[in-house]
Amino acid sequence: MAEVLVYVDHVDGAVRKPTLELLTLARRIGEPVAVALGNGAADTAAALAEHGAVRVLTADAPEFADYLVVPKVDALQAAYDAVSPAAVLLPSSAEAKEIAARLAVRIGSGIITDAVDLEAGDQGPVATQSAFAASFTTKSRVSKGVPVITVKPNSAAVEAAPAAGAVEALTVSFSEQATGTKVLSRTPRESTGRPELTEAAIVVSGGRGVNGAENFAVIEALADSLGAAVGASRAAVDAGWYPHTNQVGQTGKSVSPQLYIASGISGAIQHRAGMQTSKTIVAVNKDSEAPIFDLVDYGVVGDLFDVVPQLTEEINTR
Ligand code: FAD
What we know:
By secondary structure, this protein is α/β, with parallel strands linked by helices. Helix content is 27%, strand content 24%. Helix 4 packs across helix 5 and helix 6 packs parallel to helix 9. The longest helix is centred in the first third of the chain and has 14 residues. The chain is globular and about 60 Å long. The site of flavin-adenine dinucleotide (FAD) has 28 residues, from helix 7, helix 8, strand 16 and helix 9.
């Protein structure tokens, strides 16, 4: 069976959920070979093996932390050369997408980004994407070279599938470009204690209808009752009510949670672009004609300041 390279997103050895989802998808098209780089790379092996990695290639060097993405591209290319895979899969994080693009250029391959599903096809993997600001759902395959595909978080269920997970050290020689851009400092964002927006199983978002930064407490309370992340429309972000890091949409983040709750959001095409692939969509809007109601599974026509607190209270009592 052909091998499929899976780029591992981890924090000091703790594998992040989108990588485990990638392993589920990788198994549909071949045998996953995971590539883990940087501090704690070897510590990822057990989790990766439990989810189907037949081999785990690891490398650690100061370059991975001290410089921007090129050292990681060098390492992934070394893995690519060593494995000759049928496809390369990466999560759709900002960093991994840059790594994917650079690798695709180097190996002369086509690339598909932000896939939301992946299946085996006669002529290579077929990826499902949401395209043109979510106006279309497309199925595509790479027709040149070995497909490089990035997959959005929450695109597949994590499934355990124990495999050998043999750990092998990857030999990497860094290119001249590797040390071209040095990281001078890193400032971790203050933690809200909520899940990361793009990885959360539930996202609760507020828009212009929230009508003020202080009123976002209503949205946050519902999010906390559900263990959800908080999102915001661009109108709410532009008004300075919520940080841009939480913006959902074409010029914000793209999310695909199990449940997306939009309150006081009209459903403009640019917002839909970032949330339309959510599995279940709920909207609260006082205008029954709001376009968001065209795509919801459940809609509540009402004032969010009446509806959302009642919902929060109901959930908290359960
Ligand atoms: P509005 O469209 O003003 O809708 C507010 C809604 O709240 C209305 O439907 C109203 O009925 C409802 N409402 C008001 N009060 C209440 C209440 N008390 N209870 C219940 N409902 C209430 N937008 C994004 O979101 N993300 C993007 O990434 C993005 N990128 C863009 C990129 C470009 C190039 C452009 C041109 C636009 C982009 N936009 C984006 C902006 C987008 O076009 C819309 O302007 C924006 O999404 C509107 O945000 P909204 O739904 O919160 O506000």
